[in-house]
């Protein structure tokens, strides 16, 4: 059984040379094909030809289902293969997504599973995360809403988490954060990581419907398959990356035979000098990875049980994130998978493992051949042209930047305006100050859109414990130019912090177009504030007799 997932043994040069000769001899004697064959890579002519045939099939009248997941999956394949954004299949996938989302309110949409919304997130982010920010945010909100209390994702009617669905919730989250610049609460990531760590089989494999145990005493899982093991283990690597407990290192192609590589549990990492960044124990993650990697090495195949093409895409994802974490690339797994796909491709360019699943199977197989996940990782590593994720890189359009505390900060740093509210709920968040500044600086159109959808939440921020949150909320309310906001701004005049009081005074003057308002100096007394509040209330009641004010 090929041991393609092993770490390089640190041996003397002579030992390596001897092992190489032995490995080559054994491989030559036992191989079912000529060693003169090319080691297949994504840019190999055979692979390119297979991809071209598959894409031609997906572009044909192949009866692609109208389901959102299928549309998004096909659109993703075309984008990864370099198709233009106006490709008919891509345009149709966007149209289908928007039709399913309706009024863009996560509370008003429902899916039977996680695949469709998660794949739609990945597709839209790959297409254009800025243009489709509203749709992406709606889908992310929905995924947050349906995440189960134990951290996994699964069928609505079942309490258990589903490893198959969870892997797509995890991948969509990673893509949103890393390639789209969106924000997802750390608690969500920690929760799903905890579930994954506790649903590993004692053997190191993963099952279908997770049975929760502990890292120290794993529970026996059911329906253990290669596809579920690749899904679960790959998701552990992805979560570790999102939580900052997996170093991203430069990947080197060692090209060594699998016989020279040793499988072992990851070494325990020294605690961060500044304290833990997450409640997830990196040592637990290392133990789960170690057990899983051993199982994959001992049971590796590219021709598994049912759902084989679905499995190969999960395998590509797992291997891509493992390569990134370990800084080492062993090419044999890809070669074997690509050889299998090329040898089993149908005349029309498709693949089919299960009846009536030809489109999805073809898409999964093509994503494997294209090294889809690796492309996303490389995009993040290079930060992309004009991409700013987590404050890294520099925007292509310098008009979209401002200076905060001597640093250049891009306005799209935190994704859509709605995400600013989520950040401002946690004053300890590292992006808190940036979010406060950006919310305060929202243009009128964006402020109106934000209020239209999150007016109650924004107004509630006026009573937040954080001064910065209250200041940002006052500024955003003023920028909307909506007189409905006058009562809450009048309430802000009673704030215990003088800076908020002055901001509310100025906001009321701009909003009502009364340059001097009803007075109020730079350091007003309590009596002055009370008098001005009475004046503003009287003025507002004159134009809105039925108005109600905050206490």
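Q: What amino acid sequence fits the structure above?
A:
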């Amino acid at each position: 059984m090929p041991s393609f997932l092993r770490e390089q043994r640190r041996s003397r040069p002579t030992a390596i040379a001897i092992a190489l000769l032995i490995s080559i001899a054994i491989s030559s004697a036992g191989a079912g094909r000529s060693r003169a064959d090319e080691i297949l890579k994504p840019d190999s002519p055979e692979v390119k030809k297979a991809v071209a045939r598959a894409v031609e099939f997906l572009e044909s009248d192949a009866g692609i289902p109208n389901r959102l997941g299928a549309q998004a999956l096909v659109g993703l394949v075309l984008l990864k293969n370099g198709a233009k954004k106006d490709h008919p299949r891509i345009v149709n996938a966007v149209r289908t997504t928007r039709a399913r989302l309706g009024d863009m309110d996560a509370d008003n949409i429902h899916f039977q599973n996680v695949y469709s919304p998660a794949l739609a997130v990945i597709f839209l982010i790959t297409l254009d995360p800025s243009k489709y920010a509203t749709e992406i945010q709606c889908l992310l909100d929905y995924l947050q809403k349906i995440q189960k209390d134990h951290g996994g994702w699964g069928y609505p009617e079942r309490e258990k988490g589903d490893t198959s669905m969870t892997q797509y919730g995890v991948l969509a989250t990673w893509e949103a954060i890393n390639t789209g610049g969106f924000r997802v609460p750390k608690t969500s990531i920690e929760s799903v990581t905890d579930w994954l760590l506790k649903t590993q089989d004692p053997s190191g494999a993963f099952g279908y419907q997770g049975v929760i145990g502990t890292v120290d005493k794993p529970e026996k899982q059911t329906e253990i398959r290669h596809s579920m093991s690749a899904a679960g283990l790959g998701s552990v690597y992805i979560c570790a990356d999102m939580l900052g407990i997996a170093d991203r290192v430069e990947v080197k192609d060692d090209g060594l035979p699998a016989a020279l590589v040793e499988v072992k549990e990851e070494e325990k990492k020294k605690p961060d000098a500044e304290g833990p960044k997450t409640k997830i124990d990196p040592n637990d993650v290392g133990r789960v990875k170690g057990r899983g990697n051993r199982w994959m090495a001992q049971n590796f195949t590219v021709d598994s049980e049912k759902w084989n093409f679905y499995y190969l895409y999960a395998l590509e994802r797992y291997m891509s994130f493992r390569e990134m974490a370990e800084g080492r690339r062993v090419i044999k797994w890809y070669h074997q998978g690509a050889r299998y796909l090329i040898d089993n491709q149908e005349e029309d360019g498709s693949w089919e493992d299960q009846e009536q699943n030809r489109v999805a199977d073809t898409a999964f197989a093509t994503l494997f051949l294209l090294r889809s996940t690796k492309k996303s990782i490389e995009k993040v590593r290079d930060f992309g042209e004009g991409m700013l994720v987590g404050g890294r890189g520099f925007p292509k359009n310098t008009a979209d930047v401002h200076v905060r505390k001597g640093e250049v900060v891009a306005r799209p740093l935190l994704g859509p305006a709605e995400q600013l509210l989520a950040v401002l709920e946690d004053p300890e968040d590292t992006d808190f100050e940036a979010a406060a500044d950006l919310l305060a600086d929202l243009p009128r159109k964006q402020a109106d859109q934000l209020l239209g959808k999150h007016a109650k939440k924004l107004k509630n921020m006026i009573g937040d414990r954080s001064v910065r949150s209250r200041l940002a909320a006052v500024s955003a309310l003023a920028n909307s130019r909506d007189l409905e906001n006058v009562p809450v701004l009048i309430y802000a005049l009673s704030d215990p912090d003088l800076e908020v009081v002055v901001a509310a005074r100025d906001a009321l003057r701009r909003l009502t177009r009364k340059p001097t308002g009803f007075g109020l100096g730079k350091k007003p007394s309590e009596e002055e504030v009370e008098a001005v509040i009475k004046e503003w209330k009287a003025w507002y009641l004159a134009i809105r007799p039925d108005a109600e004010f905050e206490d």
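Q: And what stands out in the fold?
A: DSSP finds 21 helices and six strands in the chain.
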